[in-house]
Design goal:
With 132 residues, the chain is of the alpha+beta class. It has six helices and three strands; from the N terminus they run H-H-H-E-E-H-E-H-H. The chain is globular, with a radius of gyration of 16 Å.
Length: 132
C-alpha cells in the first residue's frame, strides 16, 4: 500500500488502526479521536470498525491470560471474536469502556491483520518515493 492509500482513510479509521497497532483496549480509541469524533454515536463507530474488519484489516479479540516460561503473568490477545457476534457486542456501551477489573482479562482489544499491517506500515523507501 502507498502513503496515498493511508491518507485516504478517515481519521476515525486511522484511530482504529492506531488502537490495533498498540493492542490497546477498544476504549483507548477515544484517545486517538478528535474531540468532535468522540461524541459520535457508538453505532457509527461500530459501523466503521466493522468495515475495517470486513475489509480484512483488523480483528476484534478478547484479552486472555498468558503465563511466560518464567511464570510471570500477563495478557495476550485471545481468539478472534466471530464476525457474526460483533454487531451485538459493539452495540453494548460497556464494550467501549475501560473495565472495572484492572486485570483487563476478557476486555476487547483490536489486532491488525497482515493486510492491516501492510496498509499502516509505510517503508522509508516508499515514503521517499511516494508522490503527494
Amino acid at each position: 500500500m502507498s502513503h496515498r492509500d493511508w491518507e485516504r482513510l478517515t481519521n476515525v479509521e486511522r484511530a482504529f488502526f492506531t488502537n490495533a497497532f498498540e493492542s490497546d483496549l477498544l476504549a483507548g480509541v477515544f484517545g486517538d479521536l478528535d474531540p468532535a469524533e468522540r461524541d459520535m454515536p457508538l453505532g457509527e463507530l461500530a459501523q466503521i470498525l466493522l468495515s475495517l474488519v470486513d475489509r480484512g484489516f483488523i480483528e476484534v479479540r478478547r484479552y486472555a491470560r498468558w503465563i511466560a516460561d518464567d511464570g510471570r503473568e500477563g495478557l495476550t490477545p485471545g481468539e478472534v471474536i466471530p464476525r457474526r457476534d460483533l454487531p451485538q457486542l459493539l452495540a453494548d456501551p460497556e464494550t467501549w469502556e475501560y473495565p472495572d477489573d484492572s486485570s483487563w482479562a476478557g476486555a476487547i482489544t483490536l489486532v491488525e491483520t497482515d493486510a492491516g499491517r501492510s496498509l499502516s506500515r509505510i517503508s522509508p523507501d516508499e515514503m521517499l518515493h511516494d508522490e503527494p
